[in-house]
Amino acid sequence: MKKHIKQCNTFGCATTISIAPFSFTWVIASLFFIFAANPSLVIGDDYLDALSTEAEASAHVPTNTGNTGPSEEQVALEKLLQKEKPTTFRYYKKLNRWDKATVVELYRTDNADTPAKFDHLRKKILDLYFKR
Amino acid sequence: MKYIDLTLPASVVMAFVILPVSTNTLALEVKITQDMASMPVHHGDDFINIQRIQDQDNVLTGGYTKTSRKCPPFCIQPLHVAPGVITVAELELLEFIDKKLEMGSGILIDARTPAWYQKATIPGSINIPFTHFDPEKSVETLAGVLLKLNVHKKATGGGSFMDSIRNFLSGDANAADSPWDFSQAKEILLYCNGIWCGQSPHAIKNLLSLGYPAEKIYYYRGGMQAWQSLGLTIVVPK
Questions:
Q1: Any chain B CB within 8 A of the CB of A112?
Q2: Which residues in chain A have Cβ-Cβ distances shorter than 8 Å to B209?
Protein backbone atom coordinates (compact mmCIF):
# COMPACT_ATOMS: atom_id res chain seq x y z
CA MET A 1 0.00 0.00 0.00
CA LYS A 2 1.50 3.34 -0.98
CA LYS A 3 1.00 6.50 0.98
CA HIS A 4 1.59 9.88 -0.61
CA ILE A 5 2.88 12.46 1.89
CA LYS A 6 3.11 16.12 0.91
CA GLN A 7 5.58 18.11 2.94
CA CYS A 8 6.19 21.81 2.64
CA ASN A 9 8.93 24.01 4.05
CA THR A 10 10.51 27.33 3.30
CA PHE A 11 11.97 26.03 0.08
CA GLY A 12 8.75 24.60 -1.33
CA CYS A 13 6.79 21.46 -1.25
CA ALA A 14 7.73 17.95 -2.08
CA THR A 15 5.80 14.73 -2.23
CA THR A 16 7.26 11.61 -0.81
CA ILE A 17 5.89 8.16 -1.22
CA SER A 18 5.83 5.89 1.76
CA ILE A 19 5.21 2.26 1.10
CA ALA A 20 3.37 0.79 4.10
CA PRO A 21 3.84 -2.94 4.16
CA PHE A 22 0.18 -3.67 4.74
CA SER A 23 0.51 -7.44 4.57
CA PHE A 24 3.48 -7.36 6.94
CA THR A 25 1.50 -5.28 9.43
CA TRP A 26 -1.40 -7.71 9.24
CA VAL A 27 0.87 -10.67 9.88
CA ILE A 28 2.43 -8.99 12.92
CA ALA A 29 -1.00 -8.06 14.30
CA SER A 30 -2.41 -11.52 13.79
CA LEU A 31 0.62 -13.14 15.38
CA PHE A 32 0.22 -10.81 18.37
CA PHE A 33 -3.40 -11.85 18.89
CA ILE A 34 -2.66 -15.51 18.42
CA PHE A 35 0.13 -15.56 20.95
CA ALA A 36 -1.56 -13.15 23.36
CA ALA A 37 -4.50 -15.52 23.54
CA ASN A 38 -2.32 -18.58 23.87
CA PRO A 39 1.36 -18.09 24.42
CA SER A 40 2.27 -21.41 22.91
CA LEU A 41 0.62 -23.88 20.63
CA VAL A 42 3.41 -26.30 21.44
CA ILE A 43 2.48 -28.72 24.21
CA GLY A 44 5.11 -28.81 26.94
CA ASP A 45 5.91 -31.70 29.24
CA ASP A 46 5.05 -29.50 32.25
CA TYR A 47 1.49 -29.19 31.00
CA LEU A 48 1.20 -32.92 30.40
CA ASP A 49 2.58 -33.61 33.89
CA ALA A 50 0.05 -31.20 35.38
CA LEU A 51 -2.77 -32.93 33.51
CA SER A 52 -1.64 -36.32 34.73
CA THR A 53 -1.35 -35.15 38.33
CA GLU A 54 -4.76 -33.51 38.24
CA ALA A 55 -6.32 -36.63 36.72
CA GLU A 56 -4.95 -38.75 39.55
CA ALA A 57 -6.03 -36.25 42.17
CA SER A 58 -9.56 -36.02 40.83
CA ALA A 59 -11.15 -39.01 42.53
CA HIS A 60 -13.99 -39.41 40.12
CA VAL A 61 -17.09 -41.33 40.98
CA PRO A 62 -19.06 -41.73 37.78
CA THR A 63 -22.79 -41.46 38.11
CA ASN A 64 -25.49 -42.21 35.60
CA THR A 65 -23.20 -44.42 33.63
CA GLY A 66 -24.98 -45.37 30.48
CA ASN A 67 -26.36 -48.82 30.42
CA THR A 68 -26.24 -50.82 27.27
CA GLY A 69 -29.66 -52.32 27.83
CA PRO A 70 -33.14 -50.94 27.24
CA SER A 71 -34.34 -47.78 28.97
CA GLU A 72 -37.01 -47.80 31.67
CA GLU A 73 -39.46 -46.54 29.07
CA GLN A 74 -38.64 -49.40 26.75
CA VAL A 75 -38.99 -52.02 29.48
CA ALA A 76 -42.38 -50.63 30.52
CA LEU A 77 -43.61 -50.50 26.92
CA GLU A 78 -42.49 -54.07 26.27
CA LYS A 79 -44.42 -55.31 29.29
CA LEU A 80 -47.45 -53.45 28.03
CA LEU A 81 -47.17 -54.87 24.52
CA GLN A 82 -46.63 -58.36 25.83
CA LYS A 83 -49.79 -58.07 27.91
CA GLU A 84 -52.08 -56.18 25.55
CA LYS A 85 -50.77 -57.04 22.08
CA PRO A 86 -48.95 -60.37 22.33
CA THR A 87 -48.93 -60.99 18.59
CA THR A 88 -47.52 -57.59 17.86
CA PHE A 89 -45.00 -58.12 20.65
CA ARG A 90 -43.67 -61.21 18.89
CA TYR A 91 -42.81 -59.09 15.84
CA TYR A 92 -41.41 -56.36 18.07
CA LYS A 93 -39.01 -58.79 19.73
CA LYS A 94 -37.39 -59.54 16.38
CA LEU A 95 -36.54 -55.89 15.68
CA ASN A 96 -33.00 -54.58 16.16
CA ARG A 97 -32.12 -52.13 18.91
CA TRP A 98 -32.54 -49.08 16.75
CA ASP A 99 -35.95 -50.04 15.45
CA LYS A 100 -37.06 -50.79 18.99
CA ALA A 101 -35.89 -47.34 20.04
CA THR A 102 -37.93 -45.89 17.16
CA VAL A 103 -41.00 -47.70 18.44
CA VAL A 104 -40.46 -46.43 21.98
CA GLU A 105 -40.01 -42.90 20.72
CA LEU A 106 -43.20 -43.12 18.66
CA TYR A 107 -45.18 -44.29 21.68
CA ARG A 108 -43.74 -41.52 23.81
CA THR A 109 -44.52 -38.73 21.34
CA ASP A 110 -47.84 -39.97 19.90
CA ASN A 111 -50.66 -37.83 21.28
CA ALA A 112 -53.45 -40.00 19.91
CA ASP A 113 -55.90 -41.68 22.26
CA THR A 114 -54.84 -45.02 23.63
CA PRO A 115 -56.53 -47.42 21.17
CA ALA A 116 -55.32 -45.35 18.19
CA LYS A 117 -51.90 -45.14 19.74
CA PHE A 118 -51.65 -48.89 19.81
CA ASP A 119 -52.80 -49.05 16.21
CA HIS A 120 -50.04 -46.65 15.18
CA LEU A 121 -47.57 -48.69 17.16
CA ARG A 122 -48.68 -51.95 15.60
CA LYS A 123 -48.41 -50.50 12.10
CA LYS A 124 -44.95 -49.11 12.84
CA ILE A 125 -43.71 -52.39 14.26
CA LEU A 126 -44.94 -54.35 11.26
CA ASP A 127 -43.48 -51.79 8.84
CA LEU A 128 -40.11 -52.05 10.54
CA TYR A 129 -40.26 -55.82 10.68
CA PHE A 130 -41.05 -56.30 7.00
CA LYS A 131 -38.57 -53.73 5.78
CA ARG A 132 -35.64 -55.80 7.14
CA MET B 1 -77.97 -71.76 31.71
CA LYS B 2 -76.84 -68.74 29.90
CA TYR B 3 -73.28 -67.72 30.20
CA ILE B 4 -72.52 -64.12 29.97
CA ASP B 5 -69.15 -63.64 28.36
CA LEU B 6 -67.44 -60.98 30.41
CA THR B 7 -64.05 -61.47 28.84
CA LEU B 8 -64.35 -58.79 26.20
CA PRO B 9 -65.90 -56.08 28.39
CA ALA B 10 -63.43 -56.86 31.15
CA SER B 11 -60.47 -56.51 28.83
CA VAL B 12 -61.81 -53.18 27.53
CA VAL B 13 -62.24 -51.92 31.09
CA MET B 14 -58.74 -53.07 31.96
CA ALA B 15 -57.35 -51.35 28.91
CA PHE B 16 -58.83 -48.06 29.95
CA VAL B 17 -57.70 -48.49 33.54
CA ILE B 18 -54.24 -49.94 33.09
CA LEU B 19 -53.06 -48.08 30.03
CA PRO B 20 -53.49 -44.53 31.33
CA VAL B 21 -51.74 -45.48 34.54
CA SER B 22 -49.05 -47.31 32.62
CA THR B 23 -48.59 -44.37 30.28
CA ASN B 24 -47.78 -42.17 33.27
CA THR B 25 -45.03 -44.54 34.34
CA LEU B 26 -43.37 -44.15 30.94
CA ALA B 27 -42.93 -40.38 31.38
CA LEU B 28 -39.60 -39.35 32.87
CA GLU B 29 -39.94 -36.52 35.35
CA VAL B 30 -36.51 -35.09 34.58
CA LYS B 31 -36.37 -34.70 30.82
CA ILE B 32 -33.72 -33.16 28.61
CA THR B 33 -36.14 -30.69 27.04
CA GLN B 34 -39.92 -30.48 27.16
CA ASP B 35 -40.06 -32.59 24.01
CA MET B 36 -37.06 -34.84 24.55
CA ALA B 37 -36.66 -37.36 27.34
CA SER B 38 -33.76 -39.32 25.94
CA MET B 39 -31.68 -39.88 22.86
CA PRO B 40 -30.21 -43.17 21.67
CA VAL B 41 -26.65 -43.24 20.38
CA HIS B 42 -24.20 -45.84 19.19
CA HIS B 43 -21.16 -46.12 21.41
CA GLY B 44 -18.73 -48.52 19.81
CA ASP B 45 -20.65 -51.76 19.46
CA ASP B 46 -23.11 -50.80 22.16
CA PHE B 47 -26.30 -48.81 22.25
CA ILE B 48 -26.69 -46.14 24.90
CA ASN B 49 -29.74 -44.07 25.83
CA ILE B 50 -28.66 -40.59 26.82
CA GLN B 51 -31.01 -39.28 29.47
CA ARG B 52 -30.80 -37.42 32.77
CA ILE B 53 -30.48 -38.76 36.30
CA GLN B 54 -34.01 -38.97 37.70
CA ASP B 55 -33.03 -38.64 41.35
CA GLN B 56 -33.77 -34.99 42.10
CA ASP B 57 -31.55 -35.11 45.19
CA ASN B 58 -28.53 -36.29 43.26
CA VAL B 59 -25.41 -34.10 43.53
CA LEU B 60 -22.02 -34.10 41.86
CA THR B 61 -19.16 -35.80 43.62
CA GLY B 62 -15.46 -36.05 42.88
CA GLY B 63 -13.19 -33.82 40.87
CA TYR B 64 -15.89 -31.86 39.07
CA THR B 65 -17.01 -30.27 42.32
CA LYS B 66 -13.75 -28.32 42.59
CA THR B 67 -13.97 -24.62 41.92
CA SER B 68 -10.28 -23.76 41.65
CA ARG B 69 -7.20 -25.21 40.04
CA LYS B 70 -3.84 -23.63 39.39
CA CYS B 71 -3.85 -21.29 36.42
CA PRO B 72 -1.75 -21.72 34.48
CA PRO B 73 -2.24 -24.39 33.31
CA PHE B 74 -5.91 -24.78 34.16
CA CYS B 75 -7.12 -21.38 33.05
CA ILE B 76 -10.61 -20.23 32.09
CA GLN B 77 -11.02 -20.66 28.35
CA PRO B 78 -12.61 -18.01 26.12
CA LEU B 79 -16.10 -18.58 24.74
CA HIS B 80 -14.81 -18.47 21.16
CA VAL B 81 -11.71 -20.59 20.77
CA ALA B 82 -10.85 -19.38 17.25
CA PRO B 83 -12.50 -17.48 14.39
CA GLY B 84 -15.00 -19.62 12.50
CA VAL B 85 -15.12 -22.38 15.12
CA ILE B 86 -18.61 -22.72 16.56
CA THR B 87 -18.97 -23.04 20.31
CA VAL B 88 -21.88 -25.25 21.32
CA ALA B 89 -23.73 -26.37 24.44
CA GLU B 90 -25.56 -29.55 25.40
CA LEU B 91 -28.57 -29.35 23.10
CA GLU B 92 -26.40 -28.57 20.10
CA LEU B 93 -24.19 -31.52 21.01
CA LEU B 94 -27.24 -33.79 21.11
CA GLU B 95 -28.36 -32.41 17.77
CA PHE B 96 -24.88 -33.11 16.41
CA ILE B 97 -25.19 -36.69 17.64
CA ASP B 98 -28.62 -37.06 16.05
CA LYS B 99 -28.03 -35.36 12.70
CA LYS B 100 -24.32 -35.82 12.04
CA LEU B 101 -22.76 -38.50 14.22
CA GLU B 102 -25.48 -41.07 13.64
CA MET B 103 -25.60 -40.18 9.93
CA GLY B 104 -21.86 -40.74 9.56
CA SER B 105 -20.88 -37.21 8.64
CA GLY B 106 -19.65 -36.19 12.08
CA ILE B 107 -17.32 -37.39 14.79
CA LEU B 108 -17.59 -36.61 18.50
CA ILE B 109 -14.10 -36.38 19.94
CA ASP B 110 -13.07 -36.60 23.57
CA ALA B 111 -9.76 -34.77 23.26
CA ARG B 112 -8.48 -35.59 26.75
CA THR B 113 -5.52 -37.71 27.66
CA PRO B 114 -6.29 -41.37 28.40
CA ALA B 115 -6.00 -40.83 32.17
CA TRP B 116 -9.06 -38.57 31.98
CA TYR B 117 -10.91 -40.49 29.28
CA GLN B 118 -10.78 -43.75 31.21
CA LYS B 119 -12.77 -42.26 34.08
CA ALA B 120 -15.81 -41.61 31.89
CA THR B 121 -16.81 -40.04 28.61
CA ILE B 122 -19.85 -38.79 26.71
CA PRO B 123 -21.67 -41.58 24.83
CA GLY B 124 -20.86 -41.64 21.14
CA SER B 125 -17.35 -40.23 21.62
CA ILE B 126 -14.07 -41.57 20.40
CA ASN B 127 -10.89 -40.68 22.24
CA ILE B 128 -8.24 -38.79 20.30
CA PRO B 129 -5.96 -37.18 22.88
CA PHE B 130 -5.13 -33.59 21.99
CA THR B 131 -1.44 -34.52 21.90
CA HIS B 132 -2.10 -36.53 18.75
CA PHE B 133 -2.97 -33.35 16.89
CA ASP B 134 0.34 -31.72 17.78
CA PRO B 135 2.61 -31.95 14.74
CA GLU B 136 5.65 -31.47 17.00
CA LYS B 137 5.06 -34.86 18.59
CA SER B 138 4.79 -37.44 15.84
CA VAL B 139 4.14 -36.99 12.16
CA GLU B 140 3.24 -40.65 11.81
CA THR B 141 0.63 -40.38 14.58
CA LEU B 142 -0.78 -37.26 12.97
CA ALA B 143 -1.17 -38.99 9.63
CA GLY B 144 -3.09 -41.87 11.22
CA VAL B 145 -5.31 -39.51 13.20
CA LEU B 146 -6.25 -37.38 10.23
CA LEU B 147 -7.28 -40.45 8.28
CA LYS B 148 -9.86 -41.13 11.01
CA LEU B 149 -11.32 -37.72 10.23
CA ASN B 150 -11.49 -38.60 6.51
CA VAL B 151 -8.61 -36.30 5.71
CA HIS B 152 -6.48 -37.68 2.94
CA LYS B 153 -3.07 -36.82 1.68
CA LYS B 154 -2.83 -34.82 -1.52
CA ALA B 155 -1.05 -36.43 -4.43
CA THR B 156 2.59 -35.39 -4.36
CA GLY B 157 4.78 -34.88 -7.42
CA GLY B 158 7.87 -36.56 -6.11
CA GLY B 159 9.43 -37.80 -2.91
CA SER B 160 7.64 -39.62 -0.13
CA PHE B 161 4.49 -38.33 1.51
CA MET B 162 6.25 -38.08 4.87
CA ASP B 163 8.93 -35.90 3.26
CA SER B 164 6.24 -33.52 2.02
CA ILE B 165 4.74 -33.35 5.55
CA ARG B 166 8.10 -32.60 7.11
CA ASN B 167 8.82 -29.91 4.51
CA PHE B 168 5.43 -28.36 5.13
CA LEU B 169 5.78 -28.41 8.92
CA SER B 170 9.26 -26.94 8.87
CA GLY B 171 8.10 -23.99 6.80
CA ASP B 172 5.27 -21.47 7.02
CA ALA B 173 1.92 -22.96 7.97
CA ASN B 174 -0.01 -21.94 4.89
CA ALA B 175 -3.22 -23.85 4.27
CA ALA B 176 -2.75 -23.58 0.51
CA ASP B 177 0.52 -25.51 0.84
CA SER B 178 -0.94 -28.09 3.20
CA PRO B 179 -0.23 -31.67 2.14
CA TRP B 180 -3.70 -32.62 3.36
CA ASP B 181 -6.93 -32.78 1.42
CA PHE B 182 -9.70 -31.51 3.67
CA SER B 183 -12.43 -31.52 1.04
CA GLN B 184 -14.02 -34.69 2.49
CA ALA B 185 -13.13 -33.98 6.11
CA LYS B 186 -15.74 -34.91 8.68
CA GLU B 187 -17.39 -32.35 10.87
CA ILE B 188 -15.86 -32.76 14.32
CA LEU B 189 -17.07 -31.72 17.75
CA LEU B 190 -14.35 -31.63 20.39
CA TYR B 191 -14.58 -31.32 24.13
CA CYS B 192 -12.53 -31.94 27.24
CA ASN B 193 -13.08 -31.45 30.96
CA GLY B 194 -14.81 -28.09 30.94
CA ILE B 195 -14.38 -24.34 30.93
CA TRP B 196 -11.03 -24.58 32.72
CA CYS B 197 -9.63 -27.22 30.38
CA GLY B 198 -7.25 -26.35 27.58
CA GLN B 199 -6.96 -29.78 26.00
CA SER B 200 -9.62 -29.43 23.30
CA PRO B 201 -8.69 -25.78 22.55
CA HIS B 202 -5.13 -27.01 22.00
CA ALA B 203 -6.40 -29.67 19.64
CA ILE B 204 -8.57 -27.21 17.74
CA LYS B 205 -5.81 -24.66 17.28
CA ASN B 206 -3.40 -27.28 16.02
CA LEU B 207 -6.02 -28.63 13.61
CA LEU B 208 -6.57 -25.12 12.27
CA SER B 209 -2.85 -24.65 11.84
CA LEU B 210 -2.81 -27.77 9.69
CA GLY B 211 -5.54 -26.32 7.51
CA TYR B 212 -8.64 -28.05 8.90
CA PRO B 213 -11.67 -25.96 7.87
CA ALA B 214 -12.87 -23.93 10.83
CA GLU B 215 -16.49 -24.25 9.75
CA LYS B 216 -16.21 -28.02 10.24
CA ILE B 217 -15.07 -27.72 13.85
CA TYR B 218 -17.36 -27.40 16.87
CA TYR B 219 -16.26 -26.77 20.44
CA TYR B 220 -18.24 -27.93 23.46
CA ARG B 221 -16.78 -25.55 26.00
CA GLY B 222 -18.80 -26.88 28.95
CA GLY B 223 -17.17 -30.28 28.60
CA MET B 224 -17.55 -33.18 31.01
CA GLN B 225 -18.19 -30.95 34.00
CA ALA B 226 -21.19 -29.19 32.48
CA TRP B 227 -22.47 -32.46 31.00
CA GLN B 228 -22.39 -34.17 34.37
CA SER B 229 -23.75 -31.17 36.24
CA LEU B 230 -26.97 -31.76 34.26
CA GLY B 231 -27.02 -35.43 35.19
CA LEU B 232 -26.60 -36.54 31.59
CA THR B 233 -25.50 -40.07 30.82
CA ILE B 234 -21.81 -40.89 30.74
CA VAL B 235 -20.07 -44.14 29.94
CA VAL B 236 -16.96 -45.71 31.42
CA PRO B 237 -14.79 -47.05 28.59
CA LYS B 238 -14.05 -50.76 28.70
A1: no
A2: 41
Contacts of B19 (CB under 8 A, 6+ apart): A80, A84, A114
Q: Describe the crossing of helices B7-26 and A72-84 by its angle, rounded to 10 degrees.
A: 170
The domains of chain A are located at: 1-40, 72-130
- CB atoms B74 and A50 under 8 Å: yes
CATH domain B31-229 topology: Oxidized Rhodanese; domain 1 (3.40.250)
Instruction: Tell me the domain boundaries of chain B.
Output: 31-229
Residues 6+ away with beta carbon under 8 Å from A34: none
Residues of chain A scoring pLDDT < 50: 22, 29-40
Interface confidence: ipTM more than 0.90:
no
**Which of A47, A64, A76 lies closest to B234 in CB terms?**
A64
Among B114, B111, B161, B117, residue whose Cα is nearest residue B133: B111
For residue range A49-82, list pLDDT tens digits in order. Answer: 999 999 988 755 555 565 555 666 788 888 888 8
CB-CB under 8 Å, B234 with A65: yes
